[in-house]
Amino acid sequence: MLTVLQIGAGGVGRVVAHKLCQNRHLFERVVLASRTLSKCEQIATSVKAKGWGELVCEQVNADSVEEVVALIEKYQPKVVLNIALPYQDLTIMQACLQTKTNYLDTANYEHPNVAKFEYKEQWAFDQAYRDAQIFALLGCGFDPGVTNVFCAYAQKHYFDEIYNIDILDCNAGNHPYPFATNFNPEINLREVSAPGRYYENGAWVETKPLEIKQTWAYPEIGERDSYLLYHEELESLVKHIKGLKRIRFFMTFSENYLNHMRCLANVGMLNITPVSVPTTNGGQAEIVPIQVLKQLLPDPASLAGKTTGKTNIGCYIHGNKNKQEKRIYIYNVCDHQKCYEEVGSQAISYTTGVPAVVGAMMICKDIWGGENSKGVFNLEQLNPDPFLEELTKQGLRYDVIER
Ligand code: NDP
Q1: Which ranges carry the Saccharopine dehydrogenase-like C-terminal domain (predicted)?
Q2: Interface ipTM
Q3: Best mutation site among 119, 189, 352 for ligand 1 pocket (most ligand atoms within 8 Å of CB)
Q4: Which of 16, 8, 4, 107 lies closest to 357, judged by CA?
Q5: Superfamily of domain 3-141+346-402
Q6: What is the pLDDT of residues 318-331, one digit of tens each?
Q7: Read out DSSP for 225-236?
Q8: Atom of ligand 1 at shortest distance to CA of 13?
């Protein structure tokens, strides 16, 4: 029986579990494990109500290699889908190595006490994964994930040489809350408030947080102010897209979001270092301000159903083909309300969860990670065509505008 083990039952986890169960012909048994068992059970109830069968629910602390190893040994999955947080990447990768099991995640490793993310520690598993004859797929959400595949697809079908890539991420959704993040608040606010960085002419250029603003026109949405951020796919694309001169990442934010974020940063609520606070019984407790903030903000999963509007995420690519300069924009548009109708989620969770399931399909059908590709991979290193074909079937269409 083909089994997949999913770890993490948050906003993205809900989409992954529903889409896995929609595809029972391939994923015969789906095990959903997370820190809080009741969240797994809530998702299992929803899946069952939609007529997509049973989920096996388990409790696990994925910070413990031993607990993840025990779970893998119990169910013998073909792949472990890490849909928990970036903090768990290394422990789950280690557990997969010990049990010789394939691995997939949607975000690269971050240490809880250092606001910095990079692939170094995950790429370091490559030789061990090759020796164990297993496959790891890193960053299989939308960005990173589909954006990496878009670049590989452009290189394969549209360009002889790629000079510049701008990855654009626009969420034009509206919700009734004064301030909310569209995925895990702690991870989101760490990312957005960090210094920006982009790559140009062989070197990384650092900027102050949100220092560079440009206005981009997004199909089906219109013009939006977009801010340069550092984003993890830049690191792997610089390595794997040969001849690249410049790559940047832009994300849209409303003035309201930025005002709230700046205010919270100014008063220290985005800090990740613990502070000591007096407790009601006269003692002292250590708290991490950003974790307190996370508890106070709306759970991103609760935005589902209350968010209207669309997202547009894509890659604007400039290069040449047959000695002619050309530019393309390859992108997806996703509607928040349609995602809610299908799986009870908003579009940010949906656009992350669906690619993770497509990645799992590529692994379970031995299309990616088969005989000749063992080790640790980013998506742009693999054949983009079967992935994009399946992505469209699973609900995320892509379009290409040529200029
Ligand atoms: P949530 O915070 O909603 O969910 C995280 C889930 O992981 C929760 O169920 C949480 O459990 C569980 N979890 C956390 N720590 C542990 C642990 N130690 N052991 C077991 N389970 C644990 O996050 P999201 O669903 O919004 O995001 C999930 C992932 O997707 C993140 O890594 C995020 O960075 C990534 N992401 C990637 C994107 C992309 O395009 N590539 C875009 C958006 C997100 P509990 O309920 O107990 O807290």
Answers
A1: 141-396
A2: 0.99
A3: 352
A4: 16
A5: NAD(P)-binding Rossmann-like Domain (3.40.50.720)
A6: 999 999 999 999 99
A7: EEEEE--THHHH
A8: 25
Atom of ligand 1 nearest to the CA of 88: 18
pLDDT tens by residue, 352-376: 999 999 999 999 999 999 888 899 9
- Residue of 49, 99, 48, 55 lying closest to 78 (CA atoms): 99
Pocket residues: Cβ below 6 A from ligand 1: 7-13, 34-36, 39, 60-63, 83-86, 88, 106-107, 139, 141-145, 183-184, 187, 300-301, 348, 352
Structural domain boundaries of the chain?
A: 3-141+346-402, 146-343
CATH tag, 146-343: 3.30.360.10
